[in-house]
Amino acid sequence: MTPEERHRERMQRKKELVDRKIERATIDRGVLVVNTGNGKGKSSSGFGMLARSLGHGLRCGVVQFIKGTFSTGEEAFFRQCGGELLDYHVMGEGFTWETQDKTRDIAAAQAAWAIAARMLADPDYDFVLLDELNIALVKQYVQLEQVLAAVAARPPRQHVVITGRGAPDGLVAVADTVSEMRVVKHAFEAGIKAQKGVEL
């Protein structure tokens, strides 16, 4: 058997396995995605899914729980391009080590959660991105029980993405897809400041 024939045979077996999995995937409903871990890319992945959803003409909502004191490229881009399909809220007061005001941080997180909860209860939203919600959960600025109840009761076809390091075990347990980003290297550790298009 030639190398080309062996390759074709392996690919045929793989195709048969994948086709069987596709046939078994018959459930059609919204999914809950959690992006967590200490590595870079949690929010970026969520915003990539937002772009994909908007490209399909889905009605989308975004609530950013932490990033709030500086303008980011994703905010500028999606506000320009999202149009009537996008409801975008930057609700954070900034990173907690910057604000140094726990009362203010809790109030900002609670205000953000009020908007998020409204979106999760509204069947007009096809896709909801709750950026950095995990941090608010870890710090107990928002209660996990509230979030679990809201995602469980959301409209059946609504997709939800929750980002941020330290996703609580209870959230991981109910999520459909969980990705954990791991740090291998980061430019900041070498003294390189945050760059537009990369971190900002």
Q: Keywords, please?
A:
about 200 residues, alpha/beta, six-stranded parallel β-sheet, 8 helices, 6 strands
Descriptive overview:
This protein has 200 residues and is an alpha/beta fold. The chain has helices at residues 3-24, 42-55, 73-81, 96-99, 102-120, 133-138, 144-153, 169-174, and strands spanning 32-36, 60-64, 86-90, 127-131, 159-163, 177-180. A 6-stranded parallel β-sheet has the order 3-2-4-5-1-6, with helices on both faces.
Please trace the helix and strand order, writing H or E for each element.
HEHEHEHHEHHEHE
| Alpha-beta classification | alpha/beta
Give me the Rg, rounded: 19 Å
- Cα(first) to Cα(last) distance is 53 Å
As residue ranges, the low-confidence spans are: none
Our count of helices gives 8
Chain-averaged pLDDT: 90
Number of strands: 6
Strand order of the largest sheet: 3-2-4-5-1-6
Estimate the global geometry from the Cα principal axes. globular
The profile of the biggest β sheet is: 6 strands, parallel
**β content, as a range?**
5-15%
Residues in helix, %: 40-55%
In short:
Residues 4-22 form the Cob(I)alamin adenosyltransferase N-terminal domain. Pfam families: Co_AT_N, CobA_CobO_BtuR. This protein is α/β, with parallel strands linked by helices and 200 residues long.
